[in-house]
Amino acid sequence: VYRPWDRGYILEGQEKLVAGHNIKVEQSQIQNLERQMLKNLQRVIRYAENLGAGDCRREHVVRYFDETLQNPPAACCDLCHPNMTLPWQDIPSETLPDLPSAVNPDYMVLRAVQWNESLNDDQYAKPYTEKTLAKILNGDAFAAAQFEKDPIKRLRRIRRLESSPFYNVLQGIRGGEKAIVAIVRRLEQMGLIQQQSISFPSGDGAVTYTAPILSQAGTAQVVSGKYF
After folding, report:
1. Which residues contact 139 (CB under 8 A, 6 or more apart)?
2. How many CB atoms lie within 10 A of CB 106?
3. Helix (H, G, I), strand (E, B), or coil: what is residue 14?
4. Cα 137-167-102 angle, rounded to 5 deg
5. b/e map of 70-96 (b: 16 or more CB within 10 Å)?
6. Exposed, middle or buried by CB within 10 Å (0-12, 13-18, 19+), for 133?
7. Considering only CA atoms, which of 123, 120, 155 is closest in space to residue 141?
8. CA nearest 191: which of 224, 220, 166, 211?
9. Residues 24, 137: Cα–Cα separation, whole Å
């Protein structure tokens, strides 16, 4: 299932895979596939790291798909035509819409809460509070780990926060973390999010706090894949 607005896609096993049927694939087919994948990887690396003045971005992308750019336009990209006029170059940055407005922040918060709730099933992790979740969405792992005095534990926490699939997806939203927390509150009022009490043992006893999770209606909204 591919969703262009999402940060990835989902692979779902069908009947034969679930039933354990063996697929007969020749070794030569596997080798050909590996060679093609390596070739494509090298092309992507070259596009990202090695293109320079005189190259053409569009031509490189077309070749990636084993096609040929027969008649490139006079002004094609910033490498083959470094002085080309760009249609957006005179547009003030403050007039551009925020990225979060394009990806629908309410829905992304719901998705992040769904992921946060899934940490209940991880024996090495626990769901985050709404404030920490807001920092994850806003891409501020340092602030979320600043209370940890041990530098090694702080670094581990930062890396763990940055590994979230929803890290930084709402960076730049107007109002920052306060705006994200306000979205959580609004979704609570709509009956899509609720707070769950979380407890875990600590050196001096038990630590208890609340973390946002999806309600039944919130889960249905996420499964639908529809924006608000």
Report:
1. 167, 168, 170, 171
2. 17
3. coil
4. 60
5. eeeeeeebebbeeeeeeeeeeeeeeee
6. buried
7. 155
8. 220
9. 44
- Considering the entire predicted model, what is its pTM? 0.56
Residue from 172, 37, 158, 44 nearest 100 by CA: 172
Q: Which residues contact 196 (CB under 8 A, 6 or more apart)?
A: 117, 127, 210, 211, 212, 213
CA distance 134 to 111: 13
- Do 133 and 116 touch, CB atoms closer than 8 A? yes
How many residues are there in the chain? 228
Whole-angstrom distance, CA of residue 167 vs CA of residue 159:
11
Q: Which residues of the chain, if any, have pLDDT below 50?
A: none
Q: Which residues contact 21 (CB under 8 A, 6 or more apart)?
A: none
For the stretch 38-68, pLDDT in tens is: 988 888 888 888 888 888 888 888 888 888 8
For residue 193, what are the CA distances in angstroms to 93, 112, 153? 34, 11, 30
The two tokens of residue 96 are 């551009």
- What local confidence, expressed as pLDDT, does residue 170 receive? 87
Any bridge partners for residue 206, and if so which? 201
Using DSSP's 3-state secondary structure scheme, residue 101 falls into: helix
Q: Determine the pLDDT at residue 111.
A: 92
